[in-house]
What does this fold into?
Amino acid sequence: MKFRGVLVNGLTALLVTCSALLGQGELRFCLRSEPRTLNPLLTADESSEAVRYLTAGVLIRMNRLTQVLEPELVKFWKVSEAGRTVQFELREGLRFSDGTPFSAEDVAFTMRALMDPQLRSPVGDSFRSAQGVPEVTVTGPRSLSVRFPSAVAGVERLFDQVAMLSSRSPLKEKAVLGPFLIGEHKPGVHIRLDRNPHYWKHDEQGRRLPYLDSIYLEIQQNREIEFTKFQRGQVHLINALDAEQFQRLSRESPGITHDSGPSLDSEMIWFNQAPSAPIPQFRKDWFRSRNFRRAVSAAIRREDLCRMVYLGFAQPAAAPFSAANRLWHNPALRPHEFETKAALRLLALDGFRLENGVLKDSAGNRVEFSLVTNAGNKAREKIAAMVQADLAQIGIRLNVVALDFPSLIERISRSFSYDACLLGLTNVDLDPNGQMNVWLSSAANHQWNPGQKTPATSWETEIDRLMYAQSSELNQKKRKASFDQVQRIIWEEAPMIYLVHKNALSAVARTVINARTTALRPQTYWNAERLRVSVAAQGGAR
Amino acid sequence: MSADGSLLSISISVDYPALPGALRDVRLAIQPGEMFGLVGQSGSGKSTLALAVLGLLSGRGGRVRGSIRFQGQELASERDSFWRKLRGRQIAFVPQSSISALNPALTLHAHFREAWRAHQFGKPDPALLRELMESVSLPGQTAFLERHPAELSVGQGQRVLIALALLHRPALIVADEPTSALDVITQSEILALFRSLNRRFGTAMLFISHDLMSVGALCNRIGILSEGELVECGEAAQILLSPQHEYSRKLLSALPRALHPADLESAG
Amino acid sequence: MKIVRTLAWVLLASIFGASAGAELLALADYSQQFRESPNRAPSAQFPLGTDDLGRDRFSRLLYGSRVSLFLAAAAAALATLIAAAVGATGGYLGGVWEKTAMSGTDLVLSLPWLFLLLAARAALPLNAPPLASMSITFFLLGLLGWAAGARVVRAATRAVKESEYVLQARASGCGPFRIIVAHVLPNLKPVLIAQFWLSIPTFILSEANLGLLGLGVSEPMPSLGTMLREMESVSRIASYPWIVAPALLLLLVVSCFQVVLRGEQRPL
Ligand SMILES: Nc1ncnc2c1ncn2[C@@H]1O[C@H](COP(=O)(O)OP(=O)(O)OP(=O)(O)O)[C@@H](O)[C@H]1O
Ligand SMILES: [Mg+2]
It folds into this structure.
């Protein structure tokens, strides 16, 4: 057996080298749902985003590995007027996939389409602000400037999401500037992306990119089937692998699994602090107490969550941004320490006391509340069960209620009829400006107490001030200092109790060459234009 | 009673959707306490007539035209709920096959209980049941009543059906070929039973059969039904001895010689 | 056959006894998390190993089957009762009644009852005890899960309706309601019992699926359904084969019941 394994490996290696020279093949992986839209301006779900990432040309691309913004369709860009204006100079000789030339007019056209209120583009929303919409001025066939109504630091990062459309091509949005174009689409079954023959990029040897002939995206909801297909070599990549599958795969064939460390995702709990919440006043009082929130946080064993729910492939969380966010992570903050005594001490400060294993508040009310979460997410259900057991240690009775998503959203954002909520947050945008809608007290996604007219607490006032300060500050150091302070306040006041950041786990078949996985989405194929699949892979070897 | 004193007097035609004119202008009258025999070949419409008299034809898709007067009251135009009060209490029914006419899932007692509940509150008195069972020559103990139909002989089953029909002491019993499934000895036992019941309770009877002999042995008057028409109707002796209609003669000539009605007349 | 039945009785008695006496038999509390020993193989300490959170699977199985079997049986009884009422009434009375019953059945079958269940769950207070919310879930399952059964019952009723014994019952003056209750339904017993037994595993599995939508039992309470859900992943079964225990238990209970009941039924 062993001998044969060596032989096979040797042969594979040989084939890999050969095919690397030939540089062809089809990459196959699964989308976990049918993309909701193929219009790149309307993309909101993950599958649509995958297709957009592989087909769309953008002016600026954030390198998923280095997290640095790089010029893509532009030769360079320049930010001026303290961040209000971004000037672009397009590359020469660019053509859409159907051969139509690409010009500054197309950028202007795309921006107009994006800002069209009729279209309701989610990407467009990130460009909009209370002061208005950006203005595009074409200054030459390949030069233009975009002027924003107010100065926003780091605003150019948003162009990573804007797929350039052609104003002239008869194919409309099907004419693309990215490495691949949609070759075939069978709804619910698959999407085949073919090489864009007019793609502008070349490798260091002058070869036209992409290397791959095509990418076959199979639409497959079932993670088990996806996993089996990967084991059989029928698909080449798995993104966001779950811990159990990752562990098994690592044991079976080490070297094809990749743990890219903590991801940008976080799991957290918050208490309902909305004044209009239809819950008893004494509970509102608990939830508004910093001591109570910190006590709850201190009673949770984050290490256990990481070890048992994620089999160790997760890190205890302290603040919104994990270490995966190189620029904005605040390394000074440590996760709240698990310490039952400290928790009880904090509770005692507010008059809570433990009587025969039952925690009561100063008025004698038993400390019992519900924790809602969305049903069907196994990891989250396990976290809830563990938090329940942890809180029982300090005499708190937690009622875990899993709700379907619409009911959950109804409760946490409209009726406010809930006590506490456990949810995960997926960060796509690395910049704190992408989180203005969470941290500003007036914001709709300020979950624990949304849409406040004036900040309810002094620390929320302070967060508001710091968020505004960092958003108009162009000096990166000063911005970082402001947002570090925001994260510290969140850590101290614990309006959101951060629990864990799960690791970004992925698997890449050995036959895929040039793969470099990263914690950021899309973890495995962010450099799709440079990936190759050895010919042997078509036969199914892994 | 009606003007002419009849218990039942009918004058009906019956149509089935598939067979219009299953009965055509059939007129007959039964006096209180009278044993009336209805004879006819298979398919001549005997059961149709029986069901019409019980008001059960609509359940079988048949439609009755004409008049059915019972104790002077016109029933043909009445609703089923009215019929229901008569059925079982005033006009009882003894069907042909004891095997299929008793509910296999129910004990005998349950049959009596349900038939009782149809017209009275509570449960039938055990003493009454015993008496009833004895009147049809069946054991009246509880153990027997706890049996299921599958545990009876065909003759016993037929007696149970007769007992059921007698439960409410009806004025009229419609018996649709109650003896045709039985062997000759049992047949004659049942006929004797009918005769004695008629004497004891004065129950009138519409006795339907394709068997002229048993009808002749039992009935005062006889009607002969052929292809939906009542071809002859009169005193039993007269019809058996000198049938007028050709069809009646054919029926008679089909009888074995040894059982000629002339011999029966004296026995009856 | 006798031995098989006795065996089935013994098994049933011990399963129900064990789940009723869960407190005595369980070595650990079903919610206690032995965090140092998650996903353990069966051992003396944990007869069926532990789950992801280090909870004793054996103890969870005992409690879970108590809750699930009892509630599912109650829901199945409710559903069968409704199916019997709707199916038999519609099938026996026919006409408008049947149309109404059948369109009601179709409506229930086509109703997006997940949304109804979700709406019901959303209306429940969040701090309701887990057992209460689970009971409501099963109650709703029973209330909504009768439609398929009603169709079967209706078809069977129509066969019974044509029978001689129903005609005989009508001729005794029995009203439609009594006929349905006393004559039709006893004959549908095998159909109803089959419906009942089919419903139990269906409801237990439904509860498992509803768990995906948050309608199932809530932490830390176990249910057969949530334990069965663990078997979704084939690879999990491969690595922890003992997690099939709940499925085996369910299979055992259902088949034992069938053996026992088949023996109980009188041969008709
Ligand atoms: N429900 C029905 N629909 C249509 N035709 C019917 C129906 N019931 C009976 N018939 C027809 O009506 C005629 C008379 O039937 P009926 O049952 O009254 O005959 P019968 O004299 O009782 O015969 P048998 O001695 O065989 O019982 C037959 O030709 C029969 O086919
Ligand atoms: Mg007949």
